[in-house]
Specification:
Length: about 325
């Protein structure tokens, strides 16, 4: 079995939608020969690399007595539970019961194993329910697969519900206020009108009276994994390469925590790529972490029931559209 299909709509809405891909952790978090415990969608998982470097992701629960496999030993293509030595392969099959060779547990697939992909320095996994164990088609964000684009992955964990982290990205207007002191988001009007523009993969939420000045638009993309794309103009001091883009994803950890992934990218080639990378690491990266810290401080300071005591207006259309979408999917998944 995979994630329980008996979860209520409220539970799914709080801990993350099923039957889609989600980012899990940066690839560097899973070193060869090591076991990495991770919480995602309210459940405990284990990541490790097989002897050939390929990733495996298992439920962090020994099929014998329920002990965490993450406390066990890495044996190349399998993991041995510390408690009684039961060995589990990368596909979730029990390969050995050392205490009772020939035990009827051997050869049975008793541990959930999730399909995984690596892209742009991050690990993605398919979180299906009992009715959808096989992964759906995954179309990766173009900026992470285009060889003419160079990107840096920034990862952090915030004590905020996963939806608040996504909603923050679907709210361009906060850039003109919360991030006003930023070197990239000081310009433009502090008033605006917005519209939603539907696409074949999601929707744009964009200003109708300003473009290319500040955080003026964002696109929600649903391509097997949910991600957002946005662009912020760069001053000439940031070097060649045009606007600065961000691909954002969020991992639901549990009801109150999130893992946030931000790929900062620019379209650069040849000598421009070297210039961009140098400027980013020596000057720009620190400033961008300061902007992310402003988001973290604001979101973590909001009460857990903030979305129950709101008075929304036209600038919040993108957030309202997102909530309706996610709530409807949570309801559908719980009913199924």
């Amino acid at each position: 079995m995979t994630l329980s299909s008996t979860a209520t709509a409220d539970r799914i809405y709080a801990t993350g939608l099923r039957n889609q891909w989600h980012p899990v952790v940066p690839s560097r978090f899973v070193a060869p020969g090591a076991l990495r415990k991770v919480t995602a969608l309210g459940e405990q998982w284990l990541l490790f690399r097989r002897a050939d470097g390929a990733l495996a992701m298992l439920a962090d629960r020994c099929p014998h007595r329920g002990a965490p496999l993450s406390l066990g030993k890495h044996l190349g293509d399998r993991v041995a539970c510390w408690y009684h030595g039961v060995e589990v392969g990368a596909d979730g099959t029990v390969t050995s019961v050392p205490g009772l060779p020939g035990c009827n547990l051997e050869g049975k697939k008793l541990v959930t194993s999730l399909p995984v992909r690596e892209v742009g320095g991050a690990i993605l996994a398919w979180f299906g329910d009992e009715e959808h164990p096989e992964p759906a088609e995954l179309t990766l964000p173009e900026p992470l697969t285009d060889p003419a684009v160079d990107a840096f992955l920034c990862y952090a964990e915030w004590d905020v519900p996963w939806r608040y982290a996504v909603e923050n990205l679907l709210d361009p207007m906060h850039g003109a206020f919360l991030h006003h002191e930023s070197h990239t988001m000081f310009a433009g009007d502090t008033t605006a009108k917005f519209r939603i523009r539907e696409t074949d993969r999601g929707y744009f939420f964009e200003k109708t009276d300003q473009r290319g000045v500040n955080f003026d638009w964002v696109e929600l993309c649903r391509t097997g994994v949910d991600w957002v794309d946005l662009s912020i103009p760069y001053p000439p001091s940031a070097g060649p390469g045009g606007p600065f883009g961000i691909v954002g994803m969020v991992r639901p950890v549990d009801e109150q925590r999130s893992g946030v992934f931000f790929w900062r990218y620019r379209r650069v080639e040849d000598w421009q790529r070297a210039s961009w990378r140098f400027l980013y690491k020596t000057l720009i990266e620190k400033r961008h972490w300061e902007v992310l810290e402003q988001d973290r401080v604001m979101l973590e300071a909001m009460p857990a029931d903030a979305d129950q005591r709101e008075n929304l207006y036209q600038h919040d259309l993108g957030v309202v559209r997102l909530r309706r979408l996610y709530r409807a999917e949570a309801e559908a998944q719980s009913t199924a």
